Amino acid sequence: MNENEQHIRDRHALAEKIAREAGKVAFDYFSRRETLVIETKGDPQDVVSIADREVENLIRDRVSDTFADDGFLGEEYGLAEGSSGYTWVVDPIDGTSPFVSGMPNWCVSIAVLHDKKPVVGVIFVPCYEEIYSAAAGQGATLNGKRLSLDGRKTIRNGLTGIGANHHVTPAAVGKIVNDLLEGGGNFVRLGSGALMLAYVAAGRLVGYYEPYMHAWDCLGGYCIVEEAGGWFLPFPTEGGRLTKGAPVLAAGPGAVSDLKRIAGVGAGDSAAA
Protein backbone atom coordinates (compact mmCIF):
# COMPACT_ATOMS: atom_id res chain seq x y z
CA MET A 1 0.00 0.00 0.00
CA ASN A 2 1.44 3.37 -0.99
CA GLU A 3 1.24 6.53 1.08
CA ASN A 4 -1.66 8.00 -0.88
CA GLU A 5 -3.73 4.82 -0.47
CA GLN A 6 -3.15 4.96 3.27
CA HIS A 7 -4.24 8.59 3.38
CA ILE A 8 -7.47 7.67 1.61
CA ARG A 9 -8.09 4.68 3.90
CA ASP A 10 -7.58 6.85 6.97
CA ARG A 11 -10.07 9.43 5.75
CA HIS A 12 -12.53 6.73 4.74
CA ALA A 13 -12.46 5.24 8.24
CA LEU A 14 -12.98 8.66 9.79
CA ALA A 15 -15.81 9.50 7.38
CA GLU A 16 -17.71 6.35 8.40
CA LYS A 17 -17.23 7.14 12.09
CA ILE A 18 -18.29 10.77 11.70
CA ALA A 19 -21.32 9.90 9.54
CA ARG A 20 -22.70 7.62 12.25
CA GLU A 21 -22.10 10.21 14.98
CA ALA A 22 -23.63 12.99 12.90
CA GLY A 23 -26.57 10.78 11.98
CA LYS A 24 -27.29 10.14 15.65
CA VAL A 25 -27.41 13.88 16.35
CA ALA A 26 -29.59 14.48 13.29
CA PHE A 27 -31.97 11.68 14.26
CA ASP A 28 -32.39 13.20 17.72
CA TYR A 29 -33.52 16.43 16.08
CA PHE A 30 -35.77 14.44 13.72
CA SER A 31 -37.44 12.82 16.72
CA ARG A 32 -38.37 16.27 18.06
CA ARG A 33 -38.69 18.12 14.78
CA GLU A 34 -41.84 19.96 15.90
CA THR A 35 -39.58 22.10 18.11
CA LEU A 36 -37.35 23.23 15.23
CA VAL A 37 -37.50 26.71 13.76
CA ILE A 38 -37.57 26.23 9.99
CA GLU A 39 -36.10 28.89 7.70
CA THR A 40 -36.23 29.19 3.93
CA LYS A 41 -33.26 29.90 1.67
CA GLY A 42 -33.64 30.68 -2.05
CA ASP A 43 -37.12 29.21 -2.33
CA PRO A 44 -39.99 28.18 -0.01
CA GLN A 45 -39.13 24.53 -0.82
CA ASP A 46 -35.45 25.09 0.11
CA VAL A 47 -35.40 24.95 3.89
CA VAL A 48 -32.85 24.80 6.69
CA SER A 49 -32.94 24.38 10.46
CA ILE A 50 -30.59 24.42 13.43
CA ALA A 51 -30.23 20.67 12.92
CA ASP A 52 -28.48 21.20 9.58
CA ARG A 53 -26.12 23.77 11.06
CA GLU A 54 -25.26 21.82 14.21
CA VAL A 55 -24.61 18.60 12.29
CA GLU A 56 -22.35 20.40 9.80
CA ASN A 57 -20.40 22.03 12.63
CA LEU A 58 -19.95 18.64 14.29
CA ILE A 59 -18.58 17.10 11.09
CA ARG A 60 -16.30 20.07 10.43
CA ASP A 61 -14.92 19.93 13.98
CA ARG A 62 -14.26 16.18 13.81
CA VAL A 63 -12.41 16.53 10.51
CA SER A 64 -10.36 19.45 11.81
CA ASP A 65 -9.40 17.50 14.92
CA THR A 66 -7.73 14.79 12.81
CA PHE A 67 -6.91 16.41 9.46
CA ALA A 68 -6.42 20.08 10.22
CA ASP A 69 -4.87 20.80 6.81
CA ASP A 70 -7.75 19.36 4.78
CA GLY A 71 -10.18 21.66 3.01
CA PHE A 72 -13.88 21.56 3.89
CA LEU A 73 -16.97 22.47 1.89
CA GLY A 74 -20.33 22.28 3.64
CA GLU A 75 -23.76 23.26 2.38
CA GLU A 76 -24.47 25.62 5.26
CA TYR A 77 -21.15 27.41 5.83
CA GLY A 78 -19.32 27.20 2.51
CA LEU A 79 -15.73 26.45 1.58
CA ALA A 80 -12.63 26.62 3.77
CA GLU A 81 -9.53 25.99 1.68
CA GLY A 82 -6.94 23.46 2.84
CA SER A 83 -3.31 22.74 2.04
CA SER A 84 -3.18 18.92 2.10
CA GLY A 85 -4.72 18.28 -1.33
CA TYR A 86 -7.81 16.71 0.27
CA THR A 87 -11.18 18.44 0.57
CA TRP A 88 -14.20 17.15 2.47
CA VAL A 89 -17.56 17.90 0.84
CA VAL A 90 -20.52 17.53 3.17
CA ASP A 91 -24.28 17.79 3.23
CA PRO A 92 -25.21 17.47 6.91
CA ILE A 93 -28.83 16.61 6.16
CA ASP A 94 -29.63 15.97 2.51
CA GLY A 95 -33.39 15.94 2.20
CA THR A 96 -34.24 18.64 4.74
CA SER A 97 -37.77 18.99 3.33
CA PRO A 98 -38.60 15.30 3.98
CA PHE A 99 -36.77 15.63 7.33
CA VAL A 100 -38.93 18.48 8.63
CA SER A 101 -42.06 16.82 7.18
CA GLY A 102 -41.49 13.65 9.19
CA MET A 103 -40.49 11.40 6.29
CA PRO A 104 -37.49 9.04 6.44
CA ASN A 105 -35.95 10.01 3.06
CA TRP A 106 -32.95 11.98 4.32
CA CYS A 107 -29.32 11.21 5.00
CA VAL A 108 -25.89 12.47 6.01
CA SER A 109 -23.59 12.67 2.98
CA ILE A 110 -19.79 12.90 3.22
CA ALA A 111 -17.28 12.91 0.35
CA VAL A 112 -13.53 13.46 0.22
CA LEU A 113 -11.92 14.86 -2.93
CA HIS A 114 -8.31 14.32 -4.01
CA ASP A 115 -6.93 15.55 -7.33
CA LYS A 116 -10.41 17.00 -7.90
CA LYS A 117 -12.04 13.55 -7.85
CA PRO A 118 -14.17 11.89 -5.15
CA VAL A 119 -12.04 9.22 -3.49
CA VAL A 120 -14.24 8.63 -0.43
CA GLY A 121 -18.01 8.49 -0.22
CA VAL A 122 -20.14 7.73 2.84
CA ILE A 123 -23.91 8.13 3.05
CA PHE A 124 -25.64 7.27 6.32
CA VAL A 125 -29.44 6.92 6.49
CA PRO A 126 -30.39 7.07 10.17
CA CYS A 127 -34.06 6.12 9.80
CA TYR A 128 -33.06 2.83 8.16
CA GLU A 129 -29.69 2.30 9.88
CA GLU A 130 -28.05 1.97 6.47
CA ILE A 131 -24.52 3.09 5.70
CA TYR A 132 -23.35 3.17 2.08
CA SER A 133 -19.59 3.43 1.91
CA ALA A 134 -16.77 3.45 -0.64
CA ALA A 135 -13.16 4.44 -1.18
CA ALA A 136 -11.23 4.63 -4.44
CA GLY A 137 -10.13 1.17 -5.53
CA GLN A 138 -11.67 -0.49 -2.47
CA GLY A 139 -15.19 -1.21 -3.72
CA ALA A 140 -18.52 -0.15 -2.28
CA THR A 141 -20.58 -1.62 0.54
CA LEU A 142 -23.99 -1.34 2.18
CA ASN A 143 -23.78 -2.18 5.88
CA GLY A 144 -20.57 -4.05 5.11
CA LYS A 145 -21.98 -6.12 2.23
CA ARG A 146 -20.26 -5.65 -1.13
CA LEU A 147 -22.24 -3.84 -3.83
CA SER A 148 -21.98 -4.88 -7.50
CA LEU A 149 -24.33 -3.57 -10.17
CA ASP A 150 -26.21 -5.82 -12.58
CA GLY A 151 -25.80 -4.76 -16.22
CA ARG A 152 -29.11 -6.40 -17.15
CA LYS A 153 -31.13 -3.75 -15.36
CA THR A 154 -32.29 -0.95 -17.68
CA ILE A 155 -34.74 1.93 -17.55
CA ARG A 156 -37.36 -0.48 -18.91
CA ASN A 157 -37.15 -3.07 -16.13
CA GLY A 158 -36.15 -0.79 -13.25
CA LEU A 159 -36.91 2.58 -11.71
CA THR A 160 -35.04 5.82 -12.39
CA GLY A 161 -34.69 8.56 -9.81
CA ILE A 162 -35.15 12.17 -10.86
CA GLY A 163 -34.69 15.45 -9.03
CA ALA A 164 -36.07 18.95 -9.41
CA ASN A 165 -35.67 22.32 -7.72
CA HIS A 166 -36.28 26.02 -8.31
CA HIS A 167 -33.19 26.24 -10.54
CA VAL A 168 -34.92 24.05 -13.15
CA THR A 169 -38.01 25.09 -15.11
CA PRO A 170 -41.22 23.07 -14.89
CA ALA A 171 -40.99 22.55 -18.66
CA ALA A 172 -37.53 21.01 -18.33
CA VAL A 173 -38.72 18.63 -15.62
CA GLY A 174 -41.74 17.74 -17.71
CA LYS A 175 -39.51 16.88 -20.66
CA ILE A 176 -37.39 14.55 -18.50
CA VAL A 177 -40.50 12.74 -17.32
CA ASN A 178 -41.94 12.59 -20.84
CA ASP A 179 -38.72 11.26 -22.39
CA LEU A 180 -38.29 8.69 -19.65
CA LEU A 181 -41.85 7.41 -19.97
CA GLU A 182 -41.68 7.38 -23.78
CA GLY A 183 -38.51 5.29 -23.49
CA GLY A 184 -40.40 2.66 -21.52
CA GLY A 185 -39.16 3.72 -18.10
CA ASN A 186 -40.70 4.96 -14.90
CA PHE A 187 -39.49 7.25 -12.14
CA VAL A 188 -39.46 8.12 -8.46
CA ARG A 189 -38.48 11.24 -6.55
CA LEU A 190 -37.62 10.95 -2.87
CA GLY A 191 -36.47 14.48 -2.00
CA SER A 192 -32.82 13.56 -1.37
CA GLY A 193 -30.45 13.35 -4.31
CA ALA A 194 -27.68 11.81 -2.21
CA LEU A 195 -30.01 9.04 -1.04
CA MET A 196 -31.14 8.30 -4.59
CA LEU A 197 -27.52 8.08 -5.73
CA ALA A 198 -26.92 5.59 -2.92
CA TYR A 199 -29.91 3.64 -4.25
CA VAL A 200 -28.29 3.58 -7.70
CA ALA A 201 -25.16 2.05 -6.16
CA ALA A 202 -27.32 -0.54 -4.41
CA GLY A 203 -29.21 -1.42 -7.60
CA ARG A 204 -32.51 -0.17 -6.20
CA LEU A 205 -32.60 2.49 -8.91
CA VAL A 206 -31.06 2.04 -12.36
CA GLY A 207 -30.02 5.69 -12.50
CA TYR A 208 -30.50 9.19 -11.19
CA TYR A 209 -30.73 12.50 -13.06
CA GLU A 210 -31.09 16.05 -11.84
CA PRO A 211 -30.30 18.99 -14.15
CA TYR A 212 -28.92 21.17 -11.34
CA MET A 213 -27.33 20.00 -8.08
CA HIS A 214 -24.48 21.03 -5.84
CA ALA A 215 -21.29 19.16 -5.05
CA TRP A 216 -22.34 18.39 -1.47
CA ASP A 217 -25.45 16.61 -2.80
CA CYS A 218 -23.70 14.29 -5.25
CA LEU A 219 -19.98 13.66 -4.69
CA GLY A 220 -20.37 11.11 -1.92
CA GLY A 221 -22.89 9.18 -3.97
CA TYR A 222 -20.73 9.44 -7.08
CA CYS A 223 -17.84 7.65 -5.36
CA ILE A 224 -20.14 4.88 -4.14
CA VAL A 225 -21.75 4.43 -7.57
CA GLU A 226 -18.38 4.20 -9.31
CA GLU A 227 -17.01 1.67 -6.85
CA ALA A 228 -20.16 -0.44 -7.27
CA GLY A 229 -19.49 -0.64 -11.02
CA GLY A 230 -21.62 2.26 -12.23
CA TRP A 231 -21.00 5.37 -14.29
CA PHE A 232 -21.30 9.06 -13.47
CA LEU A 233 -21.01 12.38 -15.24
CA PRO A 234 -18.11 14.16 -13.52
CA PHE A 235 -18.91 17.23 -11.47
CA PRO A 236 -16.87 20.33 -12.42
CA THR A 237 -14.38 21.17 -9.68
CA GLU A 238 -11.99 23.58 -11.42
CA GLY A 239 -11.56 27.01 -9.87
CA GLY A 240 -14.75 28.17 -8.21
CA ARG A 241 -16.94 25.60 -9.95
CA LEU A 242 -16.94 23.32 -6.91
CA THR A 243 -19.28 25.71 -5.11
CA LYS A 244 -21.64 26.12 -8.08
CA GLY A 245 -24.38 23.86 -9.34
CA ALA A 246 -24.14 21.50 -12.31
CA PRO A 247 -26.05 18.62 -13.94
CA VAL A 248 -25.84 15.34 -12.05
CA LEU A 249 -26.25 11.98 -13.75
CA ALA A 250 -25.33 8.49 -12.56
CA ALA A 251 -26.38 5.06 -13.77
CA GLY A 252 -25.82 1.37 -13.60
CA PRO A 253 -24.15 -0.12 -16.70
CA GLY A 254 -27.40 -1.17 -18.37
CA ALA A 255 -29.01 2.27 -18.16
CA VAL A 256 -26.14 4.56 -19.18
CA SER A 257 -26.95 5.02 -22.86
CA ASP A 258 -30.66 5.70 -22.31
CA LEU A 259 -30.09 8.16 -19.51
CA LYS A 260 -27.32 9.98 -21.37
CA ARG A 261 -29.79 10.42 -24.24
CA ILE A 262 -32.53 11.69 -21.92
CA ALA A 263 -30.10 14.08 -20.22
CA GLY A 264 -28.62 15.26 -23.51
CA VAL A 265 -25.12 14.09 -22.65
CA GLY A 266 -23.12 13.70 -25.86
CA ALA A 267 -20.22 11.46 -26.76
CA GLY A 268 -17.84 14.36 -26.22
CA ASP A 269 -18.79 14.78 -22.57
CA SER A 270 -16.24 13.38 -20.15
CA ALA A 271 -17.31 10.46 -18.02
CA ALA A 272 -16.08 8.19 -15.28
CA ALA A 273 -16.43 4.47 -15.60
From TrEMBL:
<dbReference type="GO" id="GO:0008934">
    <property type="term" value="F:inositol monophosphate 1-phosphatase activity"/>
</dbReference>
<protein>
    <recommendedName>
        <fullName>Inositol-1-monophosphatase</fullName>
        <ecNumber>3.1.3.25</ecNumber>
    </recommendedName>
</protein>
<dbReference type="InterPro" id="IPR000760">
    <property type="entry name" value="Inositol_monophosphatase-like"/>
</dbReference>
<comment type="similarity">
    <text>Belongs to the inositol monophosphatase superfamily.</text>
</comment>
<dbReference type="GO" id="GO:0007165">
    <property type="term" value="P:signal transduction"/>
</dbReference>
<dbReference type="GO" id="GO:0046872">
    <property type="term" value="F:metal ion binding"/>
</dbReference>
<dbReference type="GO" id="GO:0006020">
    <property type="term" value="P:inositol metabolic process"/>
</dbReference>
<feature type="binding site">
    <location>
        <position position="91"/>
    </location>
    <ligand>
        <name>Mg(2+) 1</name>
    </ligand>
</feature>
<keyword id="KW-0378">Hydrolase</keyword>
<feature type="binding site">
    <location>
        <position position="93"/>
    </location>
    <ligand>
        <name>Mg(2+) 2</name>
    </ligand>
</feature>
<keyword id="KW-0460">Magnesium</keyword>
<dbReference type="InterPro" id="IPR020583">
    <property type="entry name" value="Inositol_monoP_metal-BS"/>
</dbReference>
<feature type="binding site">
    <location>
        <position position="75"/>
    </location>
    <ligand>
        <name>Mg(2+) 1</name>
    </ligand>
</feature>
<dbReference type="Pfam" id="PF00459">
    <property type="entry name" value="Inositol_P"/>
</dbReference>
<keyword id="KW-0479">Metal-binding</keyword>
<feature type="binding site">
    <location>
        <position position="94"/>
    </location>
    <ligand>
        <name>Mg(2+) 1</name>
    </ligand>
</feature>
<feature type="binding site">
    <location>
        <position position="217"/>
    </location>
    <ligand>
        <name>Mg(2+) 1</name>
    </ligand>
</feature>
